[in-house]
Amino acid sequence: MSLTQQLKEKAALSVNKHPENIREVMNKAIQELADSQLIPKALKTGDTIPKIILPNASNKLVSVQELLLDNKVILSFYRGGWCPYCNLELRALQNSQEKFKKLGAILVAISPETPDNSLSTLEKNNLSFEILSDVDNVISSAFNLTFTLPKDLVEIYNNFGINLEQSNGNKKNQLPIAATYIIDQNGTIIYDFIKEDYKERADPDKIIKNLTK
């Protein structure tokens, strides 16, 4: 089953799982994000990425520019290991990793979670690619992807047991828009997938198609 199909099934189950008032808050937050016009300002195909040096799950600094010396980089911004849609995406990317490598690309995922929480995400999903911690969303903001969650949605997340303050190591309640990029070796974005709805992600098959262009 493709990632796109898995995400649709997960979203359908969520509709039946959550009461209408919670769904309304979630859908309202997505609409407000769309109304904010953040995506038109985000980095896209043809843009050059900023310098990226972030700690991985072992708290070792990783430079994306150094990785680009030998490979293209598939860069995936995700919300956190607490997000079931993110976990589906990360596992799908992992399953396609060998295909990406054969096409000269390696995976790097970025979230605002602390390295310790990134390590938990890596271990939970049996990931073998770099998971980088963008604490305070510095890199996400450089890509113009950072937004602040509405207070009513934060309250819902807290009731779900999702503590963003603990996950991200700050009280900002900010997340990146879930986005995927393919970066050419010269640092230029050659593919982008950016959606306000966190339930939509770049399917590995689409990434592969764009790697073969």
Task: Based on the model shown, name its key terms.
10 helices, two-stranded antiparallel sheet, 213 residues, alpha/beta, globular, 9 strands, Glutaredoxin, five-stranded mixed sheet
Q: Please tell me the CATH architecture by its name.
A: 3-Layer(aba) Sandwich
Please estimate the helix content: 40-55%
Number of strands: 9
Largest sheet: 5 strands, mixed
Round the mean pLDDT to the nearest integer and report it: 96
Extract low-pLDDT stretches. Answer: none
The CATH class, by name, is Alpha Beta
Strand order of the largest sheet: 5-4-3-8-9
Q: What is the CATH H-level superfamily?
A: Glutaredoxin
Indicate the radius of gyration in whole angstroms: 16 Å
Structural class, by secondary structure, is: alpha/beta
Order of helices and strands: HHEEHEHHEHEHEHHEEEH
The CATH topology turns out to be Glutaredoxin
Q: How much β-strand is present in the residues?
A: 15-25%
Total of DSSP H or I helical runs spanning 4+ residues:
10
